[in-house]
Write a structure and sequence with these properties.
- The structure is a homodimer of 124-residue chains.
- Chain A has 124 residues and is α+β, with helices and mostly antiparallel strands.
- In chain A, 50% of the residues lie in helices and 23% in strands.
- Chain A contains five helices and five strands, in the order E-E-H-H-E-H-H-E-E-H.
- Chain A has a three-stranded antiparallel β-sheet with strand order 3-5-4. A two-stranded antiparallel sheet of chain A has the order 1-2.
- Chain A starts with a strand and ends with a helix.
- Chain B binds a DNA duplex (30 and 30 nucleotides) through residues 1, 3, 31, 33, 47-49, 57-65, 67, 79, 81-84.
Amino acid sequence: MGWTATTQATTTAMTKTVQLATEDVFTAIAHPVRRRLLDLLVGGEQPVNRLAMPFKMSRPAISQHLRILLDVGLVSERRSGRERRYRLHPEGLRQIREWLATYDRFWQERLAALGDHLDKENRQ
Amino acid sequence: MGWTATTQATTTAMTKTVQLATEDVFTAIAHPVRRRLLDLLVGGEQPVNRLAMPFKMSRPAISQHLRILLDVGLVSERRSGRERRYRLHPEGLRQIREWLATYDRFWQERLAALGDHLDKENRQ
DNA sequence: AGAATAGGTAAGTGATAACTTACACGTCAA
DNA sequence: TTGACGTGTAAGTTATCACTTACCTATTCT
C-alpha cells in the first residue's frame, strides 16, 4: 500500500494531508476493527474515547484506524471543544456495492441455468 | 491477520493443514489482483495459465492468490488432465452484501432526515 | 522412454500493517 | 496558572503479505 503526500489549501493556512494513494475502500474495510468502528458510528456521531471503549487495544491504535477510514472518506471528523467527533459517511461503500453487482448478475444467471436444467430433467 | 493450525483426519493418514482462522472474505477481496481474478472467472471456468495471462506477476504468485480465494470458498478447483480449472463461487460474497445492508438502512435514514429538513426549510 | 506442459509448494526477501509506548498540543476546570 | 482531559503523531517492533526463484509432481506428446 503506497502513500502519497498531497497539499491542501485553506483560507487561513496550509495544512499537510496524507492520503491513501489508492482510495482503497476495500482495504479500509478489510480490517475487522475498522468494520466494527463503522458499525459503532451507525449510532451517530461519536468522540474517539467512546469509539475506543469496546476495544482492548490502545487508544492510539484506534486513532490510527480512524485515520485510515478518514483517508478513504468513510468517516469525517468534527472538532467540538477538546473532543473530535467522528461521523459515518457510507457513500464510499457504493464502490463495493458496484463491484458486487457483477456477481449478482452472475449469480442470477447460474440460478437461471439451474432452473433450465431442472426443467429439462422434469420433462424427461 | 491471525493464522491457526488445524488438523484434518483422513482414512489413511493425518495431514496438517493451515487455514485462515477467520474465513475472511473481506480480506480475500481486499487485494486488487484477487478481485481481478474473480472478475476473470465471471467468464466461466478457467485454467491457471489463462488466469495468469493478464498479469505481469509470476505464475506462482497467481497460484498463491488463487489459494487464498480457494480457502475462503470463493472459487473451487477441478482437475482436468494436466490442467486445474478454477470456477467462481460467489456465494461467499453474500457475507459482504449482508454487512453492507446495515449502511443501506443508515443511508436511507439520512436521506429521509434530509428530506424532512428540506420540508421544514420550505415551510418557513 | 524422454521431453514438454501445467501448476503447486518451499524458502527466502523486502515492504508494510498493526500494534505499542512516549510525547506534544489544544481545551477545560480549579 | 496549573493540572487533567481528549486526542493526534513519532518512533520502534513484530508479524505477515506479496512477491521471487528453484524445485517437484502429474500429465500429455513424440
